[in-house]
Amino acid sequence: MQKIEAVIQPSKLDAVKDALVEIGVEGMTITEARGHGRQKGHTEFYRGREYSVDLLPKVKLEVVVTDEMLDKAILAITGAARTGTIGDGKIFISKIDEAIRIRNDERGEIAL
Predict the structure, then answer these.
(1) Dihedral angle computed from the Cα positions of residues 50, 52, 56 and 57, in that order, rounded to the nearest 10 degrees
(2) CB 29 within 8 A of CB 62
């Protein structure tokens, strides 16, 4: 099993969710986040004064998939989240040793 953590633009969340559901991914966790990468934020003007916004709104999506579904899920996320501009986000992959469903103690891929 593999855990996919994707940090994406909030405006792309619905498209990414739909793409994952379409390929058969059933469970996901979504968290609102703030951060920056290479873009380092931007400056804005408010009431004539300039100020820096260095932590931009992002969405962190976490999904655990079987090893066989990993490539499909990555393609779905990148296809739906990509705009081609800086700030599109990142995907991180981690190995998951075990999954346990609390309700009935199912273990492994069946618990997903």
Answers:
(1) -50
(2) yes
Q: In angstroms, what is the C-alpha Rg of the chain?
A: 17
Cα–Cα distances in angstroms (integers) from residue 19 to residues 15, 63, 95, in the given order: 6, 13, 22
pLDDT, tens only, 22-59: 999 989 999 999 887 776 666 667 777 776 777 888 99
Q: How far apart are CA 82 and CA 27, in angstroms?
A: 22
Helix/strand/coil percentages in the chain, nearest 5: 30, 40, 30
Two structure tokens written together for 42? 């931007």
Local structure of residue 8 (DSSP, 8 states): E
- pLDDT, position 41: 62
69-89 in b/e burial notation, b at 16+ Cβ within 10 A?
Answer: beebbbebbbebbeeeeeeeb
| Residue found by looking up tokens 């619905």 in the block | 14
Per-residue model confidence (pLDDT) at position 48: 76
